[in-house]
Amino acid sequence: MKTIVVKMGGVASDNLNDAFFQKISSWQNQGYRVIIVHGGGHYISKMMDILGIKVEVKQGLRVTSEKTLEITRMVLLGQVQPMITTHFQQAGFPTLGMNAGCDQLIQGKIIDEEKLGFVGEVTAVNSALLNTLIEKHHIPIIAPLGITESGQWLNINADEVACKVAASIKAEKLYLLTDVPGIKKESEWLKEISVEEISQLKTDKVVTGGMLPKLDSAHKALLAGVKSVFISNTIDSFGTEIKAVC
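User: That's the sequence. What structure does it adopt?
Assistant: Structure tokens below.
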């Protein structure tokens, strides 16, 4: 079963235009199944600002205290995901909003509680559940949260979740949508890089901040069998394509 995973980032509502849904429809007409993983950093930061809570980021990851985790869950599951699913449904697509609590969809573990708090990484994905849904032509819309074996909820980078989901179902393509049209080196937007070039781009500090977890996650997805990863600001363009073999 051919599958495309799309991670929506930035201000998610800005992506949900006619061109976006036309592309989703085009993929489906070509026989692809589609899975969406959504971020929500913009909305979470806005809510934290309203509540007077300082946003702290380390290595491109949001430091997540217990209070920040509560806000993150509230915003992702109560605001962002319903907004996205509503747009999809109004465009005529059958969708299901999903999170880590859906039959252990996203299992995770804490990365470094002392430095990052309740920030996690994915340890397992319930790919059988996802395959069952996409076989029935539903579009799962997944929030980037995980749960540990002991039941602790975790804030997980959406790129990490998208890449692990793509790897678990052996997706053909993975789109990491962000607020820039790809990877920029000096004054040039790169059209294509190989997985071997990722380390050098990091060493040369061509990529920094939030782009770092994107590249790390893309690397893992490619090694796990995903054929191509695209970093772009729209699914209308390929942006920068990362291939396992260039």
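The first strand starts at residue 3 and ends at 8.
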